[in-house]
Amino acid sequence: MAKAKVNQDEARAEARRRSRLAAKQRAAAEAAGSSEAPGGSSTTVSTALSAAAPSSTPGQRTGFRAALRSSFGAAPIRADLAFFPKIALTRVLAIPLLITVATSFLAVQPGALSASWLQIAVQSLLLPPAFVLSFFGGMLTRRASWLAGGVVGLMTLAGGTFVASSADLAAMEATNPVRLVLEIYARSSADLGAVASNAYGAAVMGIFGGAFAGWYGRFLRAAGPGPRSARERRRVDAERRKGPGR
User: Of 73, 72, 69, 64, whose CA–CA distance to 224 is shortest?
Assistant: First the structure.
């Protein structure tokens, strides 16, 4: 009886092995059939796939020159204007706004501007050209970075004007450059023409800062091994087809 049971187990094991072997053979036959192109051979298909692989591999690095060339291009102004409302209430503007509000709040505290680190913060974040926050805002988005930079530039102008009119400027020395600029802001806050001129300058400098951030972000994404957008892939592929410049 025990011998009969052993024979049954061996028969079942043999049946399972045959079933697995047949399944593998069917899968191999289906794969071979699907790789055959109409009127061609599987070699042609594999050759075409291998030729297309370098441009579609997400982890492949791009050369410096190709990445640099692909990072330049005409600005899609209309598309960016249409896209900007989608990022208006996101971190792209929220984070620079929080930094501006926090810096302004600290600066208007009595005697706070006597601290050197706060003077540096006000000079870097709120006073013109206020490139830091505009660049930072532009780096937070892949599209409409120049618009984000312009809006952030106006934010910094508002923060600087608030500090100029509310802070204790006497806490700084009379020859301190930060105090001199803030005093100019305070005097010009009552002149509508001066306010418009300051707003224009802040917006233009912010646009330049955001545009530079957008270009730098495109360059980093094109040069890095990470996944790229369809637009960036088209640019890089076009530069590769052109070959090295002469």
Answer: 64
The full set of domain ranges for the chain reads 2-51, 65-242
Q: What is the pLDDT of residue 24?
A: 72
Q: Collapsing DSSP states into helix, strand and coil, what is residue 101? A: helix
What is the average pLDDT across 84-93? Answer: 90
DSSP 42-99: HHHHHHHHHHHHHHH-TTPPPPHHHHHHHT-----HHHHHHHHHHHTTSHHHHHHHHH
In whole angstroms, what is the distance from residue 202 CA to residue 126 CA? Answer: 10
Q: What are phi and psi of 131, to 5 degrees?
A: -70, -30
Q: What is the pLDDT of residues 96-131, one digit of tens each?
A: 999 999 999 999 999 899 999 999 999 999 998 778
In three-state form (DSSP H/G/I as H, E/B as E, the rest C), the secondary structure along 169-202 is HHHCCCCCHHHHHHHHHHHHCCCHHHHHHHHHHH
Question: Are 153 and 125 a contacting pair, CB within 8 Å?
Answer: no
Q: Which amino acid is at 239?
A: E
Helix 116-125 vs helix 91-107: angle between axes, to the nearest 10 degrees? 140
Residues whose CB falls within 8 Å of the CB of residue 163, separated by 6 or more in sequence, listed in order: 104, 107, 108, 122, 126, 182, 185
pLDDT at 217: 83
Type of residue found at 40: G
For residue range 193-236, what is the model confidence (pLDDT) as tens digits? 888 999 999 999 999 999 899 888 888 877 776 555 666 666 66
